[in-house]
Predict the 3D structure of the following.
Amino acid sequence: MSSQAHAAPHVGAAPTGFVRKYIFSVDHKVIGIQYYLLALSAVAVGIFLSLLMRLHLAWPTMHLPGFVGGLMTPEQYLSLVTMHGTIMIFFVLTTAPQSGFGNYFLPIQIGAPDMAFPVINMLSFWVTFVAFVFMLGAFFVPGGAPLGGWTNYPPLSGLGEITGPGEGMGETFWLISISLFCLASLMGALNFIATTIDLRAPGMSLMRMPLTVWAWLVTAILGLLAFGVLLAAGILLLLDRGAGTSFFIPAGVVVSDTVQNHSGGSPLLWQHLFWFFGHPEVYIAILPGMGVASHVLSTFSRKPVFGYKAMVYALCAIGFLGFMVWGHHMFVSGMSPYSGLAFSFLTLAIGVPSAIKTFNWLGTLWGGRIQFTTPMLYALGFVSLFVSGGLSGIFLAQPAVDLYLHDTYFVVAHFHLIMGVAAIFGIFAATYFWFPKMFGRMMNDTLGRLHFWITFIGVYCIFMPMHFIGIVGHPRRYADSTGVNYLATPLLHHAHVFMTVAALVTATAQLLFFFNFFWSLKWGAKASENPWHATTLEWTIPSPPPHDNFGGNYPTVYRGPYEFSVPGAQDDFIPQNLTPAQAGQAR
Amino acid sequence: MAPATVIPEEIELINTGSGGGNDRISVPRRPGGGGNGGDGGVPRGGGGDAAVPQRAYMTGMTVALAGILMFFMALVSAYIVRKGFPNGGWQPLEPPRILWLTTLVLLASSATIVMARRKMEDHDDAGFRYWWRVTIVLGLLFLAGQLLAWRELVHAGVYLSSNPSSSFFYLFTAAHGLHLLGGLIALVAVDRMRHPRHLTLGTASEVVAVYWHFMDGLWVFLFLLLIVGR
């Protein structure tokens, strides 16, 4: 018993019963797929909600099915804003790239048979599932879904039904769901970190880990340190709502001519606690996408990642700085201008590691023999969206500019591009890239390219105009701008109609993806062990991988993760587990 | 990038130490230990090495404690901000006297768990059991004392919602108490470990002891905060 992974570790026989194999499975691969399918369901709901909002914004008097009298009330619009944001951020952007692909591929890429604590891993998924049930349940309780936005600021969120239809039971469900989600994410982060530290194969030193693994590790550390804070804030808010405490509710709040029975709490306290979580959360959503982009760009440029170490340090720097910039979400809260200045400088500082990553992606592409496969297109799309969304972040990092733009569509455009769509492109790149490994079949490339081009052009058509209407001063979160004089221009209306049509087309194009996904599961061409000629350990095992990942032959790692086009080598790629002799490199 | 070619001598091998437990502690292991790996009753194949090195449990605990620390620090920062909030209506709360006693009990329990671990290192199984169980009793006494403190406050008419200071008092004691209860359950579980499978008694007791010391230190910190920062 002198070493772990090398000397034939075992995971034992695969469970045979349906329940142990597919429902309460402790196999990280099954759990990864479960997370992915959860995210797929959530994204369908989230897209549907956004389409309802877009239709309402373009044609406010349009009759929509499912609403009393066919018309959407402003409160219902706010519910849609809240639930779209919450579902997308927590149950899609946090769930799919990290918990989904991370669970599936992190152990394989480091040469481990499973996560360090498989039962905690299973619990983490099922708690997430219960959280999702509570979140969806908020639609169906009396009063409907909450109105507070995904940021859920008090006092609106702390006073109960009196502040709006969804603020009763719906808001309570929201808080319970988020608290459960925090618990689940903490368990997941624990597993990711312990696994990466202790279960690496012999030879898999830190600087030989694929950048995906680095991204998942840094993301897990962010989750570990951030979700506990949101959990604490959620508990405080639940107590304010249910137990009559006054952590966040100030004295003398008057709602509907009634003075509320609270004393001296601080709504700003919630903002600080929330954003201390909320900003790292943004990176939790995007860092795995960065990892996937690096991985895919290198594979299909047939070149090593340019500046591997710089990429690792940039990831760590982004994670580190990510904890010191939460105040930039609060420039308009009346905070001290001196704090604002500090937060502004720190935020601008994130531009440095972000630029390192961007230029290194371009450096990876430079002079490569680029193969435009579907995952490659999505990785390129990721870089494009990351740059487009990131540039507007530099605007918003400056308090003077942010004061004007903060409550406008400019911010909506910014965070959708950088965090929403870019992260989704990371998910798509990962899906098209790893689908053959996960399911043993290829996805259809033609459908994939079609899906890419419609989605890529579509999302720019949806979100670019938002910058302009934001600069004009169009406020966000308004259900209807009728009656606001300066917004009642035909031009703005046309912009809204344009974005809505673009959203409808883009959403429809996602059916191509869903069709391709499920069709390929059954009828896709059989995938070989290594269809992309890639180098990392997951491509050295059968597709799909056996129950214990390596069929008993646990790998030893001899080289870095991206040895493409090595001069003197037989092939243009050298898998990490090949010995120098096997790689045919004369020395 | 790493150099393109690596000669075998350069391969870093990641060793796990003794694998069968902790380097420092060598508890007599039952025959076939490790034959049934798994961290939660998952049947696994027999023989040979187990998948998870023992040190992963300590890594996991360290990581978990970092998360728990962030949770409590969020509450503590809320306490400090809320207390300093202008016109916040803060009325200082005198912590019940009994907390001094419960604090002593908890400190004592840290000492007894250290004793238990020493006995284990000396291969004195009976001594280990004895001190381990004393720790369990002290832990129960601590929790009972915390409940008495609550009762004292309730009798004085101080409730969760009476004042922000009392809200935080109940919140801190409850959150810490729940974490300690989890620790107690773990203590009992280790005591009842009759046929350790992959997780050895040595590792389990070490990991639980670290958790217990952490909860002890955390309580001392919270108690000081409640007294000095009231």
Observations:
- Chain B is about 60% helix and 0% strand.
- Chain B touches chain A through 64 residues (CB under 8 Å).
- The CA atoms of residues 8 and 14 of chain B lie 14 Å apart.
